[in-house]
Design goal:
This protein is α+β, with helices and mostly antiparallel strands. It folds into two domains: 95 residues, no CATH class; 112 residues, OB fold (Dihydrolipoamide Acetyltransferase, E2P). The chain has six helices and five strands, in the order H-H-H-H-H-E-E-E-E-E-H. The protein has a five-stranded antiparallel sheet with strand order 3-2-1-4-5. Keywords: Membrane, Transmembrane, Transmembrane helix.
C-alpha cells in the first residue's frame, strides 16, 4: 500500500481500505497520529461488522423446531413499521440478514468516502439501542457469557508474525472484567490491520474457543464510551448460558 502526504502534512490513503486489504502499514503511516486514529477506528468497525454477520450466520443455520401436525395456521401479517428484535422467526431471518449485510457494508463504504471519526467500531449510540444485538458485543449478555476473557490494559510490546498477517501483542492488564481475577500480563495474536502501538490503551474480548480477540477497542475515549455498557451487561451475562 502506498501512502502519500497531502498538503496538510497528513496521509491521503484510505484507512478503511487498508484494514480491508489487511496489508501491513508502512512506518511512515504509523508515525501519522491522525491517520492511525482513523485506521484503528476503521479496524474496530470492521471487527464489529464481522462479529454481527457471524451472529446472523449462526441464526441462519439453526433448524426450526418441529411441531406436531395440525391445521395450518392463519397467515401472519408483517408490519414493516414495527421494529423487530434480532431473534426473529426463521422465516424472517433471511430478510433481516440480507438487509443487515447491505446496510452494514453500505455504512462502511460511506465512512470510507467521508472519513472515519475517532470513535470506535462500536457505534457511539449503541447503548441506547432497544436490543443487545444492536448494542454491540459489550451490550450482549449472550456474547459475554461465551467470552473467556474481557480485559483492558496497556500494550507493552508488539511484533509481527511472519507470513500470517498477524502480530503478537503483549498486554499489561489494568482491569480484568472476566474473570475478575486474571493474569496481570497476557499475550495474543491480532491482525496487523489493527495497527496497535506500544503504550496504547485497549480493551479486548476473547471467546472460550479462541486464542485471538474477535472484538477490541483502542484508545481511552472509545473505551470510556463503552465501559458503562459493559459493566451494566456483565451481571446478566453471569446468569446467561453460553449456547
Amino acid at each position: 500500500m502506498t501512502v502519500d502526504r497531502d498538503g496538510r502534512g497528513g496521509f491521503d490513503s484510505d484507512p478503511l481500505m487498508a484494514v480491508i486489504t489487511g496489508e501491513r502499514l508502512p512506518d511512515a503511516a504509523r508515525a501519522d497520529a491522525a491517520f492511525m486514529a482513523e485506521h484503528r477506528s476503521a479496524a474496530a468497525d470492521v471487527a464489529l461488522l464481522r462479529q454481527q454477520l457471524g451472529l446472523i450466520g449462526e441464526a441462519l443455520t439453526e433448524e426450526a423446531p418441529e411441531e406436531p401436525s395440525k391445521a395450518p395456521s392463519p397467515p401472519v401479517r408483517i408490519r414493516p413499521h414495527r421494529r423487530r428484535p434480532f431473534a426473529l422467526a426463521l422465516g424472517a431471518v433471511g430478510v433481516a440478514a440480507a438487509g443487515a449485510m447491505v446496510v452494514g457494508l453500505g455504512w462502511l463504504l460511506g465512512q470510507a468516502g467521508g472519513g472515519v471519526t475517532e470513535t470506535s467500531g462500536a457505534a457511539a449510540d449503541s447503548a441506547e439501542s432497544d436490543s443487545s444485538s444492536t448494542a454491540g458485543p459489550l451490550g450482549s449478555p449472550e456474547y459475554l457469557a461465551c467470552a473467556r476473557l474481557v480485559a483492558e490494559g496497556e500494550v507493552t510490546d508488539t511484533h509481527p508474525v511472519p507470513g500470517t498477517g498477524e502480530e503478537r501483542v503483549t498486554l499489561e492488564v489494568t482491569h480484568s472484567y472476566k474473570p475478575t481475577r486474571g493474569n496481570t500480563e497476557i499475550t495474543f495474536a491480532i491482525p496487523t490491520s489493527a495497527g496497535l502501538d506500544k503504550g496504547e490503551q485497549i480493551l479486548i474480548a476473547i471467546r472460550r474457543d479462541s486464542a485471538t480477540p474477535d472484538f477490541w477497542l483502542a484508545g481511552e475515549t472509545a473505551i470510556a464510551a463503552q465501559r458503562p455498557l459493559l459493566i451494566e451487561t456483565l451481571p446478566q451475562a453471569g446468569t446467561t448460558p453460553c449456547e
